[in-house]
Fold:
Amino acid sequence: MDLKSGYPFWAIKNGLMHAFPQLQQDARCDVAVIGGGISGALIASELAEHGHEVVVVEQRDIGWGSSAASTALLQYEIDTHMIDLAKRYGEDNAVLAYRACAEAIPLLQELAASVRDVDFRHMHSLYYASRRRHVPVLQAELAMRHKHGFEVSWLATEALREAYGIDAPGAILSQLAARIDPYRTAYRLFARLQKSGTGVFDRTAVMRIDTTSRGVTLHTADGVRLRAAHAVFAAGYASQQWLDQRVAYNRSSYAFITDPLDPARLHGLADTMAWESARPYLYLRTTGDGRLLVGGEDDAIDIPARRDARVDRKARKLVKKVAKAIPDLVLTPAFAWAGTFAETDDGLPFFGPHPQYGSRVQFAMAYGGNGISYSAAGAPLIRALIERRKHPMAQLFSFGRLDRND
Structure:
């Protein structure tokens, strides 16, 4: 599955950081993790650090799927408003989902500090109204978040323009957000796992999985068998190919990054990521070396050749959108790319077993606009399910909610 187009900045910046072998002989383990991106790294680390013998297999080079194209805005804010989740699943569940993502950010900070040098930095998150008619909705969202203890405030037009140079009718300013280099983080986590004895293998494609009540057997394209008590599919958007049931819809998102900019040009955006209420939304955030990363212009294209052909045109549109929202900021793309992402109907991820495979196979589908936060929140959930323990997110993030939505 071709997941990206153009020149993803993280892969260009970091290159192939570490060589991992191909799985060439039969093996056994407690948990087999399928997927060598940031989600697989977070889940494998969670399991290995708590005593599970883990083997990771990735069909490409490590980090070369969606993680190389991710824009890595770490937010607790879900693409679906808290007020809308509350209408659908109840206020308690809406708060539970948002709080799980909020608690994931300090966990990611701790993990980043342990592997070091992955461009983690705390930021603020500015969610601005694209149109005046969006203001009442955002203010209702602000009220519910404030009610449940999230540190948020409202910026009116003048304050927004003065602080960020953004011309909009109002915005929610959240204190909790962060940024990270997802590709570098995945590599450093996998290198650490390998050093501590965990098997990490790339260029190892799983072609078939056999399940019994006692375990699973993964069959690779080269005829190698990997036997495990449990398997976790953390292969990003490619995981859907293993399910007969459609659980999400693949889309394409586009991004570009500038050369390093003078911080004075960025107003308050140097330490604040910004995104808008229109759908699809424009979003911006900085990097550690002073570049501005801009993304958006999502579409329903899931054909690689058509997505490839749109990258430059979409980058030009993003430049115009930034200029409209922030009149003083005229940008020139240095690198532009596109990547596949998936959307669920309610904006929530799926973590847990699917009836098609039974309890020995877990899926980690961190779909939506804040997939890394979802993966960090979902890793302890996956471990709890494997260890047959209860977890507060087990029902809300399960495939069972598809039946409840029918």
Summary: The mean pLDDT is 94. The chain has eleven helices and 18 strands.
